[in-house]
Amino acid sequence: MLNRGYAYTSTISSKHHGRALLSHLASLYPHSTPEAWQQTLDNGEVTVDGVTANGSESLRLGQTLVWNRPPWIEPDAPQHFDVLFEDASLLAVNKPGGLPTLPGGGFLESTLLRLVQQQNPNANPVHRLGRATTGIVLFAKTSQAAAQLSADWNTPRVQKIYRALAQGVAQQDAYDIQTPIGLVPHPLLGSVWAANPNGRPGGKPSKSVAKVISRTAGTTTFEVRLYSGRPHQIRIHLASIGHPLVGDPLYGPTGQPLATLPGLPGDGGYLLHAQFLKFHHPVTGEPIHLEAALPSGFFSHG
Length: 302
Known about the structure:
alpha+beta; 10-stranded mixed beta sheet; 4-stranded antiparallel beta sheet; 5 helices
């Protein structure tokens, strides 16, 4: 799909005052090299306070930096979803693997958000799932529903239960995982969320409870309940106890990025499914119990 292009806008903060524009772009968007950014500048795609920039400018506090990215062909992604529940306030859908919830990582138009808003312009997701993760995504159609669900989301009033296929054979039947999650270095992105090593500052308290559903000779299928909402929490937490998801291109057995050529957070290849969501309706108060059927991949592994 060829999209319409996008204007990435940022404001220069005090810590970047005096910095050369080219080096600032290369650090702000580390997916491209300084040489690639110079070509982008030469193409006239970057402005500072509305003036086309060449890269040698010394930035000043408060300036507006805009990268006018021209239209690009987005990676292939599914263009469908299944409705699990819908009323005047809520919409719950079963997201397919490979479809991002929100724009990012090269995806602008091919997102669950765009597909849903084509039919429900006022619907906005209360949470998000990773691109390769399947299962329940809950949307609020009104600001009242959004506010109530957001307030409840990481409390016991909302139960989030996932199914995950992990590497290795679990020695225990259940794990209470409270590994802090924080930002660590990544060679392409600058930083990613991962298990916070050795109590480094910046780690956020996190809690998951994983119960063994089944085992094969080399894998374990877990049911995981989330008690906090950190990015990539289940992938990180299972990896931190020595059971990374089968096929996870990013996280190794410590919950850290793989030592050699770690993938990107949106890369697929693993099985993680948001299977159950239980909460009280934000308007009526009635209990809502949602279930998304397991993808076929789980049935071919034990």
